[in-house]
Design brief:
With 900 residues, the protein is α/β, with parallel strands linked by helices. It contains 17 helices and 43 strands.
């Protein structure tokens, strides 16, 4: 064939090939368009219009255009959009590599059509309402690396067909109703790094060999019905970092090979049936931060090798069969915050060495055989102790006066010991006592100290079964928060003081005191102390009766006047609603308000509760949407503007404990700190709770940083001194919360409010108190915190902590410095603001390159201050919680930066 003919043939073939490619691209484009329109109809995502280029829709990514046509859809990312409907049409997008529909309201089953997506690498359908089995057809998505189906209602077993997903790196199927066994093929996945299947009904053994064929780093299988031993293969290659197996039926011993994992930070194996000794090799796991092995059948002593784990923050060995003493070397653990060894056979004297752990906040030695006297310096200078549980031991001697140094103590349990002497007056200095003071079943003598009345936060007081004598001091009426009291079986005498918590208690709370009289005991003081006492008592009662009658007449007159005014205003409102209805406006019937109060007397006439409720019906009134509440602007008939926070459905349980909730809100209303938002009232109706606050005219820090215009529509000008002042205000507010033993649940820029002078106030403080973070967040069905601000350890601990608050605040600082959101697409896949800043040196970028140039280039002084604040933010966002500074130190560093 002549060269010219061959050239012609080649060009013809090339043209045909290009034409075929163009036709295929056009066909694919047509298929994508049809699939995307189907998704739009079913899901109705915000920002997806009926027409136009689907590649321009919010959350959609397409490949570059080819052959003159639109590109193929490669990613759909629509988390937290409130989506409902059928999304099986996504299976008709052959080029799709990422599909994220997490945290929506999707129902039905997982579409098997997704298995036809050969290029799909990332599939996240977690936190929806999906039901039915995991489809075996998903095995067709052979490129899958990340599969997350957690927190749905899926049932059935784990399909064996998924074993074909050889590239799978993360498999997360926790929080479902899955049954059956963990399939053996999990041990053969060569790329598996994360396996999370907790909170299901899985049974059988953990597959032997798991961890030998892959770089397994995280294994979380808690709250199942797994049996058999913990495979030693998990630790053989030394890659494991997190092991959570609590609440199963595992038996056998802790493998000696656990020490191979130098990067192991979190071991939680409590509530199983493990036996044998804790291996000494545990000391080789030098990165260990949390070790929980409570409620097992472990024996032997507490290994001294724990002292080599310098980062150890929590050691929980409660309710085993451990013997011996608490090793003195544990006092070298400077980062230890909780030491829990209750319910064992430990003995010896009080382990004074652990008091050298400067960060120790919880010490639980209860239900053991410790003896001897308690140390005088049990709470030395700078002690951070919050929970001290020493009950059910054999401690003797007197309660040390040094107990007055426990200025952060929330609960003190010394019951069921052999303690004698008097209750020291110094105990009245522990004004932080809130949860309980239990000194029952000892040999205490003398009178009750008047200083007990200073414990105005204490809820539970138990001094029963001692030898305390004398009268109950009237000063105890200062215990304003008291709910439960037990003074039974002592030698108390005289009349029980007239005090609500006393009279509301059962008679058994004061029984066993032969010379005690008055309510709630059915004992007349006159019968014990003679007729004169009775005459005086009747004389006093007569005066009181006259006073009560006079007060009732006055109150009746005032109530009649208020009712008349209320009826007049209600008639006006009804007439106004009739006019609105005639004008075509929608009138929503106001619900019945169950309880409502305004704490500030001067505002009681200015606030209308029905107006507060109605404001939450209109989306136009919405100011912001947080993790636990939605904020609304409410204009009162008086003209006053109020911010109304409506607690979300996950928090409605607080409305079932109205007494506790109201008491806590009233206390917070009088909290004295300029950088905290204080509640001014509340409204409870239809199982909903509204919290009322002063309206903040300048919005939030989130709006200031990321809105181009202010509330008046004017262009915002960056102002570093103002931003630094806001950062310091927020830090001072958070430091004060930590000082009064309150952990915030949602530190973020959206919860930092700005008043008319741009002073910063930290919001949602009352929500943190109502949900009681001291109990952890297991009872909260929502994640504690806002996306992008949650510390990395929360994913494994599910505990809100002080160091976690510091991390979240550090994210806020980075947000101020960079003017970037905590999570942005420009950072790249799997990278948030913290990681983007911390990895800047590896990318060859200087600090000046990551800071907002609109601020850092204004002046040398601003730049110098920003660099100093950047160092503080880097410290706050350290990955290891123990390396983060306390908020008090953060405030000091920020003040130094401001003055530099």
């Amino acid at each position: 064939m002549p060269p010219s003919s061959r050239r012609f043939l080649f060009l013809a073939l090339l043209s045909a090939r290009l034409a075929a490619l163009a036709a295929a691209a056009a066909a694919a484009s047509t298929g994508d368009a049809a699939a995307m329109q189907a998704l739009r109809r079913e899901l109705a995502p915000p920002g997806w219009g009926p027409g136009g280029d689907h590649c321009a829709w919010r959350g959609v990514t397409c490949s570059p255009a080819a052959a003159g046509g639109p590109g193929a859809v490669t990613a759909i990312e629509l988390p937290r959009r409130g989506l409902r409907g059928d999304f099986s049409a996504a299976g008709a997008l052959p080029a799709l590599t990422r599909l994220d529909l997490s945290a929506n309201s999707l129902r039905g089953g997982v579409p098997g059509s997704l298995g036809s997506l050969r290029r799909l690498e990332f599939l996240d359908l977690s936190m929806n309402l999906l039901t039915g089995p995991i489809p075996a057809a998903l095995s067709g998505a052979s490129s899958l690396r990340f599969l997350n189906l957690s927190n749905n209602a899926l049932s059935g077993g784990i399909p064996d067909e998924l074993g074909r997903l050889g590239k799978l790196q993360e498999l997360q199927i926790s929080g479902n109703n899955l049954t059956g066994v963990l399939p053996p093929w999990l041990a053969g996945l060569p790329a598996l790094r994360v396996l999370s299947a907790y909170e299901n009904s899985l049974s059988g053994a953990i597959p032997p060999g798991l961890g030998l064929s892959s770089e397994l780093q995280v294994l979380n299988l808690h709250s199942n019905a797994l049996e058999g031993p913990i495979p030693s293969s998990l630790f053989q290659l030394g890659n494991l970092q997190v092991l959570i197996l609590t609440l199963n039926r595992l038996n056998g011993s802790i493998p000696e090979s656990i020490g191979r994992c130098r990067g192991l930070s979190n071991v939680r194996i409590g509530d199983n049936r493990l036996s044998g000794a804790i291996p000494a090799s545990i000391g080789d796991a030098t990165s260990l931060t949390y070790f929980e092995a409570n409620t097992n059948d472990l024996s032997g002593g507490i290994p001294t090798q724990f002292a080599r784990c310098a980062n150890l923050t929590l050691l929980n060995l409660a309710y085993n069969r451990l013997a011996g003493e608490v090793p003195d070397v544990l006092g070298e653990l400077r980062n230890l915050q909780e030491l829990i060894v209750s319910g064992n056979g430990l003995g010896g004297e009080f382990p004074r060495a652990v008091l050298r752990c400067r960060n120790l906040s919880k010490l639980d030695l209860s239900y053991n055989s410790f003896h001897g006297e308690l140390p005088e310096d049990i709470c030395n200078n700078g002690s951070r102790m919050q929970f001290l549980f020493l009950d059910h031991n054999g401690f003797s001697g007197s309660i040390p006066t040094g107990i007055g140094g426990c200025t952060r103590l929330l609960a003190l349990q010394l019951g069921s010991n052999n303690l004698g002497g008097q209750i020291p007056a110094e105990i009245g200095k522990v004004k932080s006592l809130q949860i309980a003071l239990n000194l029952s079943f000892n040999h205490l003598v003398g009178t009750l100290p008047r200083e007990l009345g200073r414990l105005d936060k204490l809820v539970t007081l138990d001094l029963s079964s001692n030898e305390i004598s004398g009268q109950i001091p009237g000063d105890m009426r200062g215990m304003l928060s008291l709910i439960e009291v037990n003074l039974s079986n002592n030698r108390l005498s005289g009349a029980i003081p007239a005090f609500g918590p006393f009279q509301k208690s059962a008679a058994s709370s004061f029984s066993g005191n032969a010379k005690l009289c008055g309510d709630p005991l059915d004992v007349d003081c006159g019968s014990i102390y003679g007729s004169n006492y009775g005459m005086d008592h009747r004389r006093i009662s007569y005066r009181v009766a006259l006073a009560v009658v006079g007060s009732c007449v006055l109150i009746f007159s005032l109530v009649s006047l208020v009712v008349a005014l209320f009826m007049w205003r209600e008639r006006q409102e009804k007439e106004a609603e009739v006019k609105k209805a005639e004008a075509g406006e929608v009138v929503v019937a106001a619900p019945e308000v169950v309880a409502s109060t305004v704490f500030i007397e001067s505002l009681q006439q200015a606030i209308d509760f029905q107006s507060c409720v109605k404001a939450t019906y209109k989306d136009a009134n919405e100011l912001g949407n947080g993790a636990f509440s939605t904020s609304y602007k409410a204009v009162m008939p008086s003209g006053m503007v109020v911010c109304v926070k409506k607690l979300k459905s996950v928090d409605r349980t607080v409305t079932h404990q109205q007494t506790k909730m109201i008491r806590e809100l009233e206390r917070l209303a009088h909290i004295n700190h300029k950088n905290l938002v204080r509640p001014i009232g509340y409204v409870i109706y239809d199982d909903c709770a509204l919290l009322l606050h002063h309206h903040m005219p300048n919005g939030t820090l989130l709006q200031l940083l990321h809105n181009d215009c202010n509330t008046d529509g004017e262009k915002q000008k960056p102002d570093w001194p103002r931003l630094l002042s806001i950062a310091i205000d927020a830090a001072e507010g958070l430091a004060f919360l930590h000082q009064v033993a309150t952990i915030h649940l949602d530190i973020c820029s959206g919860n930092i409010y700005l008043d008319s002078h741009y002073n910063a106030l930290l919001g949602e403080v009352e929500i943190s108190k109502l949900l009681d973070p001291s109990k952890g967040t297991a009872s909260i069905s929502a994640v504690a915190g806002s996306f992008g601000y949650i510390p990395p350890e929360y994913a494994y601990t599910m505990q809100v902590t002080v160091p976690g608050n510091v991390y979240s605040y550090g994210v806020v600082l980075l947000e101020i410095l960079t003017s970037k959101l905590p999570v942005e697409e420009e950072f790249g896949e799997g990278v948030d603001l913290v990681k983007w800043v911390h990895t800047a040196p590896a990318r060859g970028e200087t600090p000046e390159q990551i800071m907002d140039p609109r601020l850092s280039t204004v002046s040398f002084a601003w730049r110098r201050q920003m660099l100093a604040v950047l160092k503080v933010a880097m410290l706050c966002t350290e990955r290891a919680p123990a390396k983060r500074p306390r908020m008090k130190k953060v405030v000091e560093m920020l003040q130094e930066a401001k003055n530099s």
